[in-house]
Specification:
Layout lengths: L1 H22 L4 H12 L4 H8 L8 H34 L17 H15 L3 E2 L5 E3 H4 L11 H4 L4 E3 L2 E3 L4 H10 L4 E10 L11 E11 L4 H16 L5 E8 L2 E10 L16 E10 L1 H6 L8 E8 H9 L12 H4 L3
Parallel strand pairs: 1-5
Antiparallel strand pairs: 2-4, 3-4, 5-6, 6-10, 7-8, 8-9, 9-10
Helix pairs in contact: 1-2, 1-4, 2-4, 5-11
The structure holds 3,4-dihydroxyphenylalanine (DAH).
3,4-dihydroxyphenylalanine (DAH) binds next to strand 9 and strand 10.
């Protein structure tokens, strides 16, 4: 009887021991070790079971039952621990959709793109079409067709990056005028934004790479007042209704007559300040009536078709609109600068 009690006690203790070990088992391996050490072939409970045949027959059923119960409890504890550990590891992988996300850093449009977009919007509103031309141009399109023969002095100002003797990086978007007229019949109403290149010494107001928007309108009976009307509307929409526009005679080989157009200073309202060099005016573009020779160069009859053209510097307008004082900032890709717009 004494022996019976001892065995019963051993079984209970083994069960407790197994349950305690399982409670701190950290992974599947540890759980498996515990299973083997209690329920395996040489496990502690199995050892006791092996003794069953040597017990008095009357005691066997009771011990057998205790063994079965302990085995059952330990098996349950094994399974519980397993599923708990599994649940915990799933928890680690789980995505908590209620957590605030990592905000992706949003890009924005470059200030020059913003200005070009606005210019496009205004001219599209006036019935113009946006076209593009190549940045690598022939000497013919960049100069000769625009009435700038090889010995012409304006070529000095347009010193460029030549690829061969007659292929260069375009120095002005005016070349697109030629390409459009060569490929279409009038009426024409286009603007052509794009990059241009000059071998300029880089400083706060000069860059080897900058942007222009070219404009061209060709139709029957176009006069200088059409040019003034379109550009005045543009200036009102771009800079505001209070801004006045001034046209002064200028010279360009591909227009006759030619003018430079200025707006009343948007900083001081025309009173005179540092930005407008105390003149009250800011030059923003060159323009004029398309030279008859240019029309002839593309096969148009100047007695039938007339047109006006203009070209504006995008950097200049962006600098005025945003109060930027150094043209080099546009090309540096410095986020501290770009994030301000
Ligand atoms: N191409 C000129 C420049 O780069 C700007 C210009 C002046 C364009 C008069 C024109 C124009 O179309 O008519 O300085």
């Amino acid at each position: 009887m004494e022996r019976l009690k001892d065995i019963g006690e051993d079984i209970r203790q083994l069960q407790n021991e197994a349950e305690e070990l399982l409670a701190s088992a950290k992974n599947e391996e540890e759980i498996e070790k515990i299973r083997v050490s209690f329920l395996g072939k040489k496990g502690k409970l199995t050892q006791i079971r092996k003794e069953l045949p040597h017990l008095p027959p009357a005691q066997r059923p009771l011990i057998g039952r205790l063994l079965n119960e302990a085995q059952e409890k330990i098996s349950q504890a094994l399974a519980t621990r397993r599923s708990l550990l599994r649940a915990l590891s799933r928890e680690k992988e789980r995505v908590d959709v209620t957590l605030p996300g990592i905000r992706p850093s949003l890009g924005r449009k470059h200030p020059l793109t913003q200005v070009i977009d606005r210019i496009k919007e205004i001219f599209i509103g006036l019935g113009f079409e946006v076209v593009e031309g190549p940045e690598i141009e022939t000497e013919y399109h960049n100069f000769i067709a625009l009435n700038i023969p090889p010995e012409h002095p304006v070529r000095d100002e347009h010193d460029s990056f030549y690829i061969t003797d007659d292929i260069l990086l375009r120095t002005e978007t005016s070349a697109v005028q030629i390409r459009v007229m060569e490929s279409r019949k009038p009426p024409i109403r286009i603007i052509a934004p794009g990059r241009v290149f000059r071998r300029d010494q880089v400083d706060a107001t000069h860059s080897h790479t900058f942007h222009q928007v070219e404009g061209l309108m060709v139709d029957k009976g176009i006069t200088f007042s059409d040019l003034k009307g379109v550009l005045t509307l543009f200036s009102e929409r771009m800079f505001g209704k209070d801004v006045r526009m001034r046209f002064r005679p200028d010279y360009f080989p591909f227009t006759e007559p030619s003018a430079d157009a200025s707006i009343s200073c948007i900083i001081c309202g025309g009173k005179g300040c540092r930005v407008c060099s105390y003149t009250g005016w800011l030059e923003i573009l060159g323009c004029g009536m398309v030279h008859p020779q240019v029309l002839r160069n593309v096969g148009y009859d100047p007695s039938e078709w007339q047109g006006f053209a203009f070209g504006m510097g995008v950097e200049r307008i962006a600098m005025l609109k945003f109060g930027i004082n150094d043209i080099r900032l546009f090309l540096e890709n410095d986020l501290r600068f770009l994030k301000q717009f």
